[in-house]
């Protein structure tokens, strides 16, 4: 494995204040930080971001935290106090980007509406991620990523027909919102650069981020009155593309839905009769007989171990892949060759493997410059950068404004 690059990154010099917690806002901050932005994360004294204690915890800190908060600095600041709010405003006045994912109205209640903040910083780009957006009849309802997945149409499609929908296994609603928010930030920064230096607000709703990737869901309903239903592991309306059991108990995904690919697939499994059938020459015909085709493919895969299946299909130039576990990813040479599993030294003194950086910029690649901070690790340094003396910081700490 190549060591992490020490490049300054494409976003070097960009100042970001992150006021969010858990997943959506912080994932956007992580993405900006991976590419060189200076991300200052504001956390509540005492408790900090709840993600510090989510899922599996090692030496008192979640290992998820080590990924989500790398390349960030932590300041422990009481935003419910007038002094804390004044300090936050001072930080934001010098920032390019503010990221927040509180319920709509929270910042306004602290005197930190965009209108107020932009008086001191007209170039400020403010990313606001919430369950339902900053406007509309649902804006004040609490919303997590799972609810966004449900309202966005995704949960209805995940699972087997006739059964209760299942989640995809990760917080995809939050992450999609974060990625849309990051795109919005970069777009707004470009606009600021070419149009006089003024910033703007990016309003991202969790359900809208999910809805935006739902492909032809709505046009199908509009044009045909069709409500797409769950289809398990298959790709509805496109055939063959499904998951197939192998003789060793593994499952492989096979995508033979291109016309020429289908013919090669049928030759590879010894079913030239299907590959040369005129009725199956295009996708529409294959969809009508998808059960027959899937049955023929799985009859072949069940007779072979998954490595043999994948080797035959690779030779036939048919897209296929085994369903990976975490162990498979960590042991895979392709992941290693592309620096997609990195070793990161935590501030607790142990090494942990973490996901690499996506996307890959070949000229100004992202990097892991610093490990995830402890709560308030950078409070003194950050406050010193905006003019607070050591005595002033000591006074704030005595009054429990900072920690």
Automatic annotation (TrEMBL):
Coiled coil: none annotated. Pfam families: CoA_transf_3 (PF02515). The keyword Transferase applies. The keyword Chaperone does not apply. InterPro entries: CoA-transferase_III_domain, CoA-Trfase_fam_III, CoA-Trfase_III_dom3_sf, CoA-Trfase_III_dom_1_sf. Keywords: Transferase. It comes from the Bacteria. One of its GO terms (molecular function) is CoA-transferase activity. PANTHER family: SUCCINATE--HYDROXYMETHYLGLUTARATE COA-TRANSFERASE. This is CoA transferase.
């Amino acid at each position: 494995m190549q060591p992490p690059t020490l490049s300054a990154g494409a976003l070097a010099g960009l100042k970001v204040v992150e006021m969010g917690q858990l997943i959506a806002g912080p994932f956007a901050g992580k993405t900006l930080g991976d590419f060189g932005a200076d991300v200052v994360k504001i956390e509540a004294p005492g408790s900090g971001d709840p993600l510090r204690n989510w899922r599996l915890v090692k030496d008192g800190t979640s290992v998820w935290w080590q990924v989500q908060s790398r390349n960030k600095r932590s300041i422990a600041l009481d935003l419910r106090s007038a002094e804390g709010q004044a300090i936050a405003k001072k930080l934001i006045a010098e920032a390019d980007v503010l990221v927040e994912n509180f319920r709509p109205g929270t910042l306004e209640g602290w005197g930190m509406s965009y209108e107020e903040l932009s008086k001191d910083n007209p170039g400020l780009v403010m990313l606001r991620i919430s369950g339902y957006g900053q406007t509309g009849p649902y804006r004040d309802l609490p919303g997590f990523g799972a609810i966004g997945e449900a309202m966005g149409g995704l949960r209805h499609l995940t699972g087997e027909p006739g059964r209760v929908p299942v989640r995809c296994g990760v917080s995809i609603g939050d992450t999609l919102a974060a990625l849309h928010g990051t795109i919005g930030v970069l777009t707004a920064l470009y606009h600021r650069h070419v149009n006089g230096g003024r910033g703007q607000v990016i309003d991202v709703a969790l359900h809208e981020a999910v809805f935006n990737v739902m492909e032809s869901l709505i046009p199908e309903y509009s044009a045909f009155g069709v409500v797409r239903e769950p289809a398990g592991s298959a790709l509805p309306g496109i055939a063959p593309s499904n998951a197939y059991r192998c003789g060793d108990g593994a499952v492989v995904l096979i995508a033979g839905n291109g016309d020429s690919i289908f013919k090669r697939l049928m030759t590879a499994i010894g079913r030239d009769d299907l590959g040369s059938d005129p009725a199956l020459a295009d996708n529409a015909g294959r969809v009508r007989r998808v059960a027959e085709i899937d049955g023929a493919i799985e009859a072949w895969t069940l007779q072979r171990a998954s490595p043999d299946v994948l080797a035959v299909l690779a030779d036939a130039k048919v897209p296929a892949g085994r369903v990976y576990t975490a162990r498979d990813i960590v042991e895979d040479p392709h992941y290693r060759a592309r620096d997609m599993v990195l070793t990161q030294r935590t501030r607790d003194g142990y090494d942990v493997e973490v996901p690499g950086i996506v996307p890959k910029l070949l000229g100004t690649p992202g990097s892991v410059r610093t490990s995830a901070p402890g709560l308030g690790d950078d409070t003194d340094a950050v406050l010193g950068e905006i003019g607070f003396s050591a005595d002033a910081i000591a006074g704030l700490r005595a009054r429990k404004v900072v920690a």
